[in-house]
């Protein structure tokens, strides 16, 4: 790597990716690197499921009852973006949308105390839920970003 760069960005967390994208869109020559074999830093999404087990050094792999590993995508930190929020506008500006898709969330789950709980997404689900969730486990529409 004997090239010259205007900026070198270390890490591929959300902040570093946005920073790198903004500088690139504004004409800077950017070298963007990460020490991990995956993108996203501590806020990455890990797939297949076997990679999650490796990441947390779990010697036994996922049980067969969980199905195919590639059918799973686990966020280390759940990420919810408000449809018209500042973060979405920034992602559109940097043209990162060429590399990602926005999807409607089908369900959100939290692992707590050795069990997996569904995060209620409707008033009916919330009233029927017995999940021991903390307020920070539940995405709040008034907050933006991860």
Automatic annotation (TrEMBL):
Superkingdom classification of source: Eukaryota
Q: A Gene Ontology biological process annotation?
A: small GTPase-mediated signal transduction
Q: MF terms per GO, please?
A: GTPase activator activity; Rab GDP-dissociation inhibitor activity
Question: According to its UniProt record, where is this protein located?
Answer: Cytoplasm; Golgi apparatus, trans-Golgi network
- What keywords were assigned to this record? Cytoplasm, Golgi apparatus, GTPase activation
UniProt KW Transmembrane keyword: no
Cite the InterPro entries for this sequence.
FAD/NAD-bd_sf, GDP_dissociation_inhibitor, RabGDI
Q: Does the keyword Manganese apply?
A: no
In UniProt terms, what function does this protein have?
Answer: Regulates the GDP/GTP exchange reaction of most Rab proteins by inhibiting the dissociation of GDP from them, and the subsequent binding of GTP to them. Promotes the dissociation of GDP-bound Rab proteins from the membrane and inhibits their activation. Promotes the dissociation of RAB1A, RAB3A, RAB5A and RAB10 from membranes.
Name under which the protein is recorded: Rab GDP dissociation inhibitor
